[in-house]
Write a structure and sequence with these properties.
The protein is mostly helical. The protein has 7 helices and no strands. α1 runs antiparallel to α2 (16-32), α2 (16-32) packs across α3 (40-52) and α3 (40-52) runs antiparallel to α4 (67-91).
């Protein structure tokens, strides 16, 4: 886990150029530890470009505050995933979506672990924002899955309506319980 983090933190500290070089060196080391060589182009996509892309975390130096590091980690991981997915599609005779799913099975958890470890040194407000972003994404996926299942089955798994509900009370509860609670919890953990 977090195998990409050392190169990403190096890139964040020293910039894109040194980070890409360090990532490419890591790619060569990965190849030397049992990689596959079909041709030069496959080697470039699977090892040099995929691992060199981790150096894009050096963009954190140009992005604002700590959010820049998180955004740069995601950018670097997405470019690595695209490079590895293209290599799988072009040289390993794998369907594009199959290659994307295969690479996603290890890159998504690794990226999330990298972000969580980077969050370990984050300010409470950054951690709070991250928690809300993850919750928003998770709930959006549930709603989209419900809508998709509803179209396929002819009826959704669950129905949701705010008609006749006390919206003001819900908004107040939504602000006080998670926002104030998490904010105080994070400051309590920090201090």
């Amino acid at each position: 886990p977090a195998s990409m983090l050392p190169v990403m933190l190096f890139a964040a500290a020293f910039g894109v150029g040194p980070g890409v070089l360090a990532g490419a060196v890591l790619g060569v080391l990965q190849y030397m530890q049992g990689g596959w060589f079909l041709n030069v182009w496959q080697f470039l996509l699977d090892y040099l470009l995929a691992y060199g892309a981790l150096g894009l975390a050096g963009l954190a130096r140009k992005l604002p505050n700590r959010w820049g590091l998180y955004a740069a980690i995601v950018i670097a991981a997405v470019v690595r995933a695209l490079s590895a997915t293209l290599a799988g599609y072009m040289f390993w005779d794998t369907a594009f979506w199959a290659s994307l799913v295969y690479n996603g099975t290890y890159l998504i958890p690794d990226t999330l672990i990298c972000i969580v470890l980077a969050l370990a040194v984050a300010k409470p407000t950054v951690l709070l924002a991250f928690r809300f972003a993850v919750a928003f994404i998770a709930m959006t996926l549930v709603i989209l899955a419900n809508a998709l299942i509803g179209r396929l089955r002819g009826r959704p798994l669950f129905a949701f309506s705010l008609k006749g509900k006390p919206i003001g009370s819900l908004v107040l509860l939504g602000l006080i319980q998670p926002v104030l609670y998490f904010f105080c919890e994070n400051y309590g953990i920090l201090y």
